[in-house]
User: Fold site-specific DNA-methyltransferase (adenine-specific) from Clostridium aceticum.
Amino acid sequence: MITGIEAFKGINISGIGNFRGITINNGGHSSGGHRVSIIKKHGGKYKQVPYINEYIKEIAEENRCHTFIELTGGGGRNILNLPMFEMDGDIYEFGRKIYNEYDRGLCNLFNCVKDPIKVQQLRTLLLKLGRDEELYRYAIDNKSKEDIPELLSAAFTYMAAMLSWSGNCQKESYLRGKTDEDSKKIEKEYFRKIKKLTKNSSSLRDIEIINGDYKPLLKKYGADPKVVKYIDPPYHPITRNQAALDIYDLEWKREDHQKLVRELLECRSWILSGYDPLVWSCEDYLPLEKAGAKKINLGVFMSGTNSTKTRKFDKEEYLWIMK
Ligand SMILES: C[S@@+](CC[C@H](N)C(=O)[O-])C[C@H]1O[C@@H](n2cnc3c(N)ncnc32)[C@H](O)[C@@H]1O
Assistant:
């Protein structure tokens, strides 16, 4: 959708440069700058957003895209921070945005944050539930279960992510703090973020939330060049610590990645995020490059809880892009 520039006159939106006296924000091409984030997410792409946005923008410009789909949504950092840019003298934005995620708890959380009344209820509930390790462990086991009501499932999902190290939702990763002072800091920060949830409600206003497998959406919109598809699947197992496989929710096996590659070969206007299996001598993603997908090495992202620097070696983040 192209939005008339006149609507923005007189408004100062900070960021990518000056356009007819108006400064426009695309999230900035640096690791700094403010980005919307609702929860921490293991494998999340918070730091990478500005770089990925450059390529989303390229595809959108070239194919005149009207829709953006985040197929394996997670913390939804991309869809929450999509670029705004100039095209044909107007400010360009996607007319339709879809967040798709298999996990019921994450969808319940996003649906509650999106709704101005439910987000208030969620905030009150989280403040009441407090920070408690036993409840945290219970939340991990129950957050996505079908028989848990939406609001409670949203609260459990929030708790499991925000009270675990790096948002990995693992029982042994509860953020306790080494000292009393650390523990107080963690608690203060947790409640500060809960109080901020209502502010994030408007960022989700025009995002459709779908709770399901990515495959039907990719089948429906994959070949349409006017629909940008972004997919950041669970890590390829070859790139993972081999002593700790199958510990996260919804892990993918090698065959799941091979299937995705076969599906992407039939599609256009897509971006795939991840580590490159080829670094581990596995050729599973190679057919994408052979079919003309551009492979971009984004390098190592070191700061923050989602650091890709490991004791053994630095894992580099990649994108595969097909216009
Ligand atoms: C690496 S995370 C995405 C992180 C996200 N890019 C962010 O910045 O927060 C992968 C997500 O894919 C979801 N997922 C796994 N299998 C899926 C499937 N078949 N369809 C849709 N989502 C799936 C997982 O639940 C997880 O939230």
Observations:
- The first strand starts at residue 2 and ends at 3.
- The two ends are 19 Å apart (CA to CA).
- Residues 41, 43-45, 72, 74-75, 77, 100-103, 213-214, 232-234, 249-250 surround S-adenosylmethionine (CB under 6 Å).
